[in-house]
């Protein structure tokens, strides 16, 4: 019986573009399938064993730490504003106690990050509703709404008259840490069955990331053509994102896990465990 092809996830958001944009897909013909989904869908597919490797919400890794290891050198994070994870509010954030908040159904990390910021850091009590990510319908019966990814970017560009808060910036102001929103996870059994292919995939991800960081002009033009917005916006957006999984990113992520555990969102704080890539030549710029 032939071995199943490696199932590789890909998030349908521009924030992961630098890691995928220059990947040589021909290298994986007949060996791997690339599957594009939203973060929450990838979280479930990874947990169900449908996806073997790919970006998932950082929070989802913590929920399944016994089943996954993390790919080194790649993540999606920011130290300060992330530019694509926003709380839209009808009133200032410090006046949201007892408010009704609509949460996007495409996220795990950001939903729980918002709870840490509002409940743990600000001591608020709130009522949440999970909805599909549409700013107009979310705000019809709610005081605030959380959007992530390209839906958040597009809603921000519409200038709808709401107060807008960047969760990356709020986290940084309260903790001094960067925030890691997505990680590339590998199911532990895939390490055993697809080890060589995973090494090749890691090489391609890191090569793409490094090339994108050296010159983001092609990615900027791609985003501008497909999503609109000013070229200068996309230049600032991609420049502000972090895709290197540095020690500082690890510290910030583990602090996030400790905060979510304090709220009872995780049973215990989680430590980051990387894939043991002893024979990988790391190409990270960090």
TrEMBL record:
Any one biological process term the GO annotation gives: menaquinone biosynthetic process
Catalysed reaction, written as an equation: chorismate = 3-[(1-carboxyvinyl)-oxy]benzoate + H2O
Residues passing through the membrane, by range: none
EC class (word): lyase
UniProt KW Ribosomal protein keyword: no
Keywords carried by this UniProt record: Lyase, Menaquinone biosynthesis
EC number: 4.2.1.151
Pfam hit, one: VitK2_biosynth
An example Gene Ontology molecular-function term: hydro-lyase activity
Pathway connected to this protein: Quinol/quinone metabolism; menaquinone biosynthesis
Function of the molecule: Catalyzes the dehydration of chorismate into 3-[(1-carboxyvinyl)oxy]benzoate, a step in the biosynthesis of menaquinone (MK, vitamin K2).
Sequence similarity: Belongs to the MqnA/MqnD family. MqnA subfamily.
Protein name: Chorismate dehydratase
Organism: Brevibacillus laterosporus LMG 15441
């Amino acid at each position: 019986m032939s071995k199943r092809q490696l199932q590789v996830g890909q998030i349908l958001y521009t924030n992961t573009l630098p890691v995928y944009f220059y990947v040589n897909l021909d290298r994986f013909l007949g060996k791997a399938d690339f599957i594009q989904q939203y973060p929450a869908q990838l979280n479930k597919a990874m947990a169900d064993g449908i996806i073997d490797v790919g970006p998932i919400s950082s929070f989802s890794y913590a929920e399944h730490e016994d089943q996954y290891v993390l790919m080194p050198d790649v993540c999606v994070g920011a130290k300060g504003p992330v530019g694509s994870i926003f709380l839209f509010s009808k009133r200032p954030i410090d006046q949201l106690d007892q408010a009704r908040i609509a949460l996007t159904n495409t996220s795990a990390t950001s939903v729980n990050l918002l709870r840490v910021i509002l409940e743990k850091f600000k001591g608020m009590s709130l009522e949440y509703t999970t909805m599909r990510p549409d700013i107009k319908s979310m705000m019809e019966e709610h005081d605030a709404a959380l959007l992530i990814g390209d839906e958040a970017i597009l809603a921000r560009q519409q200038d709808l008259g709401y107060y807008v808060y960047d969760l990356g910036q709020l986290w940084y102001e309260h903790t001094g840490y960067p925030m890691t929103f997505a990680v590339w996870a590998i199911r532990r059994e895939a390490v055993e069955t697809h080890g060589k292919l995973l090494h090749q995939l890691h090489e391609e991800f890191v090569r793409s990331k490094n090339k994108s960081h050296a010159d983001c002009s092609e990615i900027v033009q791609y985003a501008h053509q497909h999503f609109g917005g000013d070229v200068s916006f996309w230049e600032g957006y991609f420049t502000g994102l972090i895709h290197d999984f540095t020690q500082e990113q690890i510290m910030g992520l583990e602090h996030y896990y400790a905060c979510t555990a304090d709220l009872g969102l995780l049973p215990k704080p989680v430590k980051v465990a990387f894939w043991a890539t002893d024979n990988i030549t790391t190409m990270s710029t960090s």
